[in-house]
């Protein structure tokens, strides 16, 4: 937690400073001549607040007592799983545009369900095909959402 | 296994609930789909599924007009689906339409933003020549509207005079949106200036006017018609070629000596590479639909003016508007770098 | 006229459509990633072939059902089914952890009903009067309202106030990407999909549903801690007292929030939650599974449903995103919302009022009788449900604008949301920032534009002062309370 907090607040401080610098370059109120603040004011102020609050968090986190190390192995396994899932989903979204909704979704669902539940293959297969077709039909035909992207148009 | 089955049934049950509901709704609209005409034509659309892209959200003005038109034309197609692709002030949807297959099966509802976005520089590569226009369907001119009980303004001249000395706060539907440009065009012609106040959509501007927070609005007559009828607002002038049928007593700006004709339009277009005979067939189908009783009634009820224009004249209108708006936006300093 | 209204509202077909609407609404609301707005927008085309009464009332049924349905997944999965239930998730999930999911669902059902009833009553009785008040709102008032909403962030983020604030500020900053609505200057990104701003529904789906999915992946092999078994649903005596004390008040607050254009059920539930906490005798219980919190948030969000209809029907100004779609639905029927509607279509207007009452009653009956059926969806094992939720997140974020870019936005938000939750940053403030930030900025600058740059515009009207006082109380209420308490002690 402590480490996470410090990293988070540092990122926010850098981000806030970056935004302030960017917005300084935006046209000023005078350019528009209407007495209205220019486009950079609001994000500038908000970024300023972000820097201030992040600094408070940073100082508070540094003062936090060191925490006892958690059981690492359990956590690590979980985090690794999440990372793989994330990569899988990014690949899935990228595939959507090429293979279309049905094929990529069946593959994605089958892979995940089989991986997680470690059940019978035909069972995972059945669930993924039925769910995919059901979702597809509801959105495509009932709700008229054009889920017809990809090479094969479905 | 038993548990697994039970769960599956659980999902299925709750999902069929949604399904059955939706099915009830579709029946009604499909009922008279087969009643369409079957005239032989070089291009036959009666067995085709056609998609109409609306570059704005469902339920908005453009969307409702497209849906009413699609409904009137559905007999000529196997089916016609209206798809909303909103974003970037309409650029997202129109770009999608311009880049669709050029087979006439993807029709886009093009709006005046096709020209204003390019003039503004926020078009993301969108330009009207990417399209081959089928027809213009409807148009609306800007109506200069103030509060009915505002004794300061009784004619367009009052507004313009007042704006020269006091600053007139003119509400519009958004910065750089068509009604902003229309008001600016009027000011330019009259050699004066308004304080333009932008809202998210015309409704916000009208409410603010009703509450007396601004001096006037420059939106379409359709958008203020209810309040004019109820006696809350009055229209001083319309920026059109001719007086509007619904308000024959209100003069045009032209009559007062300001040659400004500015307003919005909506029409249908297909990608530029579409064969001419396909466009012709679509023109036939939709111009018939646009004259059908249902569509005319809908348009009258919603205070929309039907203005049918064929492809070439529609294209000419786009070219002219692009020129006008580019000049106006330059003057206003709204061009995006 | 009364007979006409009863006739058209109680017609079997109308009742059937309404019941189906409510059922579909509850399912849509319960599924994470499908919001009330999306449900109504997606089912709108189905009403084109119906007559006005059936169409509008079915949509209202979906709306009412979805706002309530969101609480089911909020309580059972810690994932608000709709953003309106984000506040419910905080406390509702604690019940599930304790194995009292049924109790929380019962409280939420009854409170939703009461909130809905209160709002229908307001809609019925005082809509013309309140519409007049809404007309007095201009940019300065809207700014203060949005600012007031943003101040709530500090209050809802509990002991991690800094983190909540940071998250809210990040939300506001994300919302500034794209074309500046006052000067048309393009800020931060020239990507065409971001020109009109970051689409907030995909962000919301990502932050809430997707990141929750990642979290359950982390513990996918653990035994489910949550007892999804829903036992007794009807609340017991103590809970009734709490509900009857809280829900009518937050329902009224929700109604008021609903009337205000732009502020929807999500804000209604947060304001309700917050108010209930400041009025509560046991504010420290909030966030730890307090029945009062669930009642407050659910009363608040269902209160919005009727409130949002008030400006829509009387002025043609949508009270929230759903009401905006309703305007479309009315227009398609050849009816233009506004003062004229009350003159020309009085029967229809009162049918809508009465129909909303019936829709709420359907919601109550279905909530109490079929809740087990609805929760069946959620009793699917995590190993199967989580991948399905991923698919729903993807298609849900796509469906709003039919744009694959939005799916990417959702995925990024999901990953960011997961990382944030790892270091215990509350994510709901980001949504408030995302929605209220642009509203605050735009109205702040528009107010200055109208006043010619003078700040006095923010202190001119009674409504301004009303909000200024509210803001003051929100920010410094605790200190004032503390001051008076110590003062009394000294005296005693």
From TrEMBL, chain A:
Q: Which InterPro entries match?
A: DUF1468 (IPR009936)
Q: Where is the DUF1468 domain?
A: 7-146
Please provide the record's keywords in A-Z order: Membrane, Transmembrane, Transmembrane helix
Record-annotated membrane-spanning stretches: 7-26, 41-62, 83-113, 125-143
Provide an example Pfam family for this protein. Answer: TctB
Please give the superkingdom of this protein's source: Bacteria
Q: What is this protein called?
A: Tripartite tricarboxylate transporter TctB family protein
From TrEMBL, chain B:
Presence of the UniProt keyword Signal in the record: yes
The record, for Pfam families, names: TctC (PF03401)
Which segment of the chain is annotated as a signal peptide?
Answer: 1-22
Write down the superkingdom of origin.
Answer: Bacteria
Question: What keywords tag this UniProt record?
Answer: Receptor, Signal
Q: What protein family is recorded?
A: Belongs to the UPF0065 (bug) family.
Name assigned to this protein: Tripartite tricarboxylate transporter family receptor
Q: Which organism is it from?
A: Anaerotignum neopropionicum
TrEMBL record, chain C:
InterPro entries, alphabetically? DUF112_TM
PANTHER family noted in UniProt: TRICARBOXYLIC TRANSPORT PROTEIN (PTHR35342:SF5)
Q: What is this protein called?
A: Tripartite tricarboxylate transporter TctA family protein
Q: Where is the DUF112 domain?
A: 15-432
Keyword Lipid metabolism annotated: no
Name the Pfam families for this protein: TctA
Membrane-spanning segments: 14-44, 56-77, 104-127, 133-153, 165-186, 315-335, 347-371, 383-401, 407-436, 457-477
Source organism of the structure? Anaerotignum neopropionicum
Report keywords, A-Z: Membrane, Transmembrane, Transmembrane helix
Q: Does the keyword Transmembrane helix apply?
A: yes
């Amino acid at each position: 937690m402590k480490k996470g907090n410090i990293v988070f607040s540092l990122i926010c401080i850098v981000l806030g400073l970056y935004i302030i610098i960017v917005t300084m370059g935006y046209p000023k109120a005078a350019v528009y001549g209407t007495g209205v603040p220019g486009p950079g004011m609001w994000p500038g102020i908000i970024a300023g607040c972000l820097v201030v609050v992040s600094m408070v968090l940073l100082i508070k986190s540094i003062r936090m007592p060191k925490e006892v190390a958690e059981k690492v192995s359990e956590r690590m396994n979980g985090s690794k799983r999440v990372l793989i899932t994330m990569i899988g989903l990014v690949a899935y979204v990228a595939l959507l545009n090429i293979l279309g909704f049905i094929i990529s979704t069946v593959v994605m669902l089958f892979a995940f369900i089989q991986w997680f539940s470690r059940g019978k293959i035909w069972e995972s297969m059945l669930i993924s095909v039925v769910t995919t077709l059901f979702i597809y039909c509801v959105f495509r035909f009932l709700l008229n959402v054009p889920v017809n992207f990809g090479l094969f148009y479905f | 296994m038993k548990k697994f089955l039970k769960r599956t049934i659980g999902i299925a049950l709750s999902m069929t609930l949604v399904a059955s509901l939706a099915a009830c709704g579709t029946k009604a609209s499909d009922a008279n789909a087969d009643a369409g005409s079957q005239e032989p034509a070089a291009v036959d659309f009666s067995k085709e599924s056609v998609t109409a892209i609306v570059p704005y959200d469902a339920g908005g003005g453009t969307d409702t007009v497209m849906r009413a038109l699609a409904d009137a034309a559905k007999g000529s197609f196997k089916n016609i689906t209206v798809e909303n692709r909103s974003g970037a002030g309409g650029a997202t949807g129109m770009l999608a339409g311009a880049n669709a297959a050029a087979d006439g099966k993807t029709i886009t509802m093009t709006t005046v933003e096709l020209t204003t976005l390019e003039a503004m520089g926020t078009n993301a590569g969108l330009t009207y020549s990417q399209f081959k226009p089928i027809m213009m369907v409807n148009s609306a001119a800007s109506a200069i509207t103030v509060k009915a009980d505002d004794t300061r303004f009784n004619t367009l001249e009052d507004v313009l005079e007042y704006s020269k000395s006091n600053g007139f706060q003119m509400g519009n539907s958004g910065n750089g949106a068509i009604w902003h440009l229309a008001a600016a065009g009027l000011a330019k012609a009259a050699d004066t200036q308004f304080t333009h106040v932008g809202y998210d959509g015309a409704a916000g501007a009208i409410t603010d006017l009703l509450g007396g927070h601004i001096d006037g609005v420059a939106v379409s007559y359709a958008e203020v018609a209810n309040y004019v009828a109820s006696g809350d607002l009055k229209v001083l002038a319309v920026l059109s070629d001719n007086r509007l049928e619904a308000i024959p007593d209100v003069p045009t700006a032209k009559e007062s000596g300001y040659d400004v004709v500015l307003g919005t339009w909506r029409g249908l277009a297909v990608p530029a590479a579409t064969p001419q005979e396909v466009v012709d067939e679509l023109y036939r189908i939709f111009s018939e639909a646009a004259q059908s009783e249902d569509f005319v009634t809908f348009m009258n009820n919603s205070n929309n003016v039907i203005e049918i224009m064929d492809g070439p004249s529609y294209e000419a209108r786009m070219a002219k508007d692009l020129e006008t708006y580019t000049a106006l936006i330059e003057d206003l300093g709204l061009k995006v770098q | 006229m009364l007979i006409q209204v009863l006739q058209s509202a109680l017609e079997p077909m109308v009742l059937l459509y309404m019941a189906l609407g409510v059922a579909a609404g509850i399912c849509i609301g319960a599924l994470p990633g499908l919001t009330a707005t999306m449900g109504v927008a997606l089912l709108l085309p189905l009403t084109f072939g119906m007559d006005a009464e059936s169409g509008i009332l079915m949509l209202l049924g979906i709306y009412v059902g979805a706002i309530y349905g969101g609480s089911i997944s909020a309580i059972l999965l810690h994932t608000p089914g709709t953003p309106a239930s984000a506040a419910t998730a905080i406390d509702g999930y604690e019940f599930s952890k304790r194995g009292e999911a049924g109790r929380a669902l019962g409280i939420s059902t009854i409170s939703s009903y009461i909130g809905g009833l209160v709002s229908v009553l307001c809609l019925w009785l005082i809509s013309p009067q309140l519409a007049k008040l809404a007309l007095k709102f201009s940019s300065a008032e809207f700014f203060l309202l949005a600012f007031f909403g943003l101040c709530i962030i500090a209050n809802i983020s509990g002991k991690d106030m800094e983190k909540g604030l940071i998250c809210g500020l990040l939300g506001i900053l994300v919302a500034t990407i794209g074309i500046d609505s006052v000067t048309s200057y393009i800020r931060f990104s020239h990507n065409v999909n971001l020109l009109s701003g970051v689409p907030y529904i995909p962000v919301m789906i990502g932050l809430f549903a997707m990141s929750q999915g990642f979290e359950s992946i982390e513990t996918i092999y653990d035994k489910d801690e949550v007892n999804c078994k829903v036992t007794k649903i009807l609340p017991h005596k103590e809970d009734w007292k709490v509900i009857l004390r809280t829900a009518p008040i937050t329902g009224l607050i929700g109604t008021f929030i609903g009337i205000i254009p732009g502020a929807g059920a999500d804000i209604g539930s947060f304001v309700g939650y917050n108010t209930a906490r400041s009025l509560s005798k046991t504010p420290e219980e909030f966030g730890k599974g307090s029945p009062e919190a669930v009642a407050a948030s659910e009363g608040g969000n269902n209160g919005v449903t009727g409130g949002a209809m008030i400006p829509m029907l009387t002025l043609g100004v949508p009270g929230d995103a759903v009401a905006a779609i309703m305007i479309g639905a009315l227009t398609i029927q050849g009816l233009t919302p506004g003062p004229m509607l009350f003159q020309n279509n009085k029967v229809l207007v009162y049918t809508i009022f009465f129909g909303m009452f019936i829709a709420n009653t359907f919601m109550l009956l279905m909530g109490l009788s079929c809740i087990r059926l609805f929760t069946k969806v959620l009793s699917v094992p995590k190993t199967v449900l989580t991948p399905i939720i991923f698919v729903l997140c993807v298609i849900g974020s796509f469906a709003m604008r039919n744009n694959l870019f939005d799916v990417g936005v959702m995925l990024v938000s999901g990953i960011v949301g997961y990382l944030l939750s790892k270091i215990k940053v509350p994510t709901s403030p980001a949504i408030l920032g995302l929605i209220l930030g642009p509203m605050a900025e735009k109205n702040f600058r528009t107010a200055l534009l109208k006043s010619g740059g003078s700040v006095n515009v923010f202190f001119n009207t009674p409504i301004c002062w009303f909000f200024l006082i509210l803001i003051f109380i929100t920010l410094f209420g605790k200190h004032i309370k503390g001051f008076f308490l110590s003062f009394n002690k000294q005296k005693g």
